[in-house]
Design brief:
Blueprint lengths: L1 H6 L1 H31 L7 H5 L2 H27 L19 H4 L11 H4 L3 H6 L2 H31 L7 H4 L3 H27 L23
Helix pairs in contact: 4-8, 4-10
Length: 224
């Protein structure tokens, strides 16, 4: 058990932190939402009702889709895009999908290579792009969930104000949907750009996200 915890500590620590913050969001989100309901003369929600509400769902999914957007773009973007001096970038002479030999595909695979990397045809093609594909699937799935939960939350607010609800298609061009979407996208894109350029000049000893402390600023694709 101790070895399992050590070998998986990064995933376990962030997974636990995710659950703690999700629980915290549920508690404070309910209090915030209930304060608005009371101000409008309506009955507050129980915690169980809030967890099943569109309000909680849209708040959660709009954050998820922006995070998966960040990683989807980063996975695909770093295939071709480079940043001189950044450990977040490949070496300047390695732009593109790289050769089968460098990627250890097919006849260039090793005994411990994944089975589908040793395969040929569609299985190799699918596996060679599986990380980006799954990240993109999570992004579009959570973005769709945000739109569905968002229109439900928007219509609930409309009805409380004695205004007409709208359809899902109408919500897709509504400012509320794009305000929720774009305010998350811009923050994620800023974070990625900041990490790419700041890692050129700044260091964090022991982190694979940083170059070695003594590495030259111009060293590209080098991890500590």
């Amino acid at each position: 058990m101790r070895r399992f915890l050590r070998d998986n500590s990064l995933t376990l620590a962030f997974g636990l932190a995710f659950l703690v913050t999700l629980a915290g969001q549920a508690l404070v989100g309910r209090e915030d939402f209930n304060s608005r309901l009371v101000a409008e003369g309506l009955r507050p929600m129980s915690l169980a009702a809030f967890l099943a509400s569109s309000q909680f769902a849209v708040d959660v999914t709009e954050n998820w889709q922006s995070e998966y957007l960040q990683f989807s773009l980063y996975v695909f973007g770093t295939v071709w895009l480079l940043q001189r001096g950044s450990p977040e970038s490949k070496a300047l002479d390695k732009a593109g999908e790289e050769s089968a030999e460098r990627q250890r595909l097919g006849p260039h695979s090793r005994p411990d290579s994944p089975r589908w990397a040793r395969a040929t045809g569609w299985r190799q093609a699918v596996y060679a792009r599986s990380l980006g594909a799954v990240m993109a699937l999570f992004f579009f799935g959570s973005w769709f969930a945000q739109s569905v939960a968002g229109v439900a939350a928007y219509d609930e607010a409309q009805l409380r104000s004695l205004q007409a609800p709208i359809t899902w298609l109408e919500y897709l061009v509504n400012p509320d949907f794009w305000n929720r979407t774009l305010q998350n996208w811009q923050s994620e894109l800023l974070a990625v750009a900041s990490m790419a350029i700041l890692s050129v000049y700044l260091r964090q000893r022991g982190s694979p996200e940083s170059k070695p402390v003594g590495a030259a600023h111009g060293a590209t694709g080098v991890e500590g």
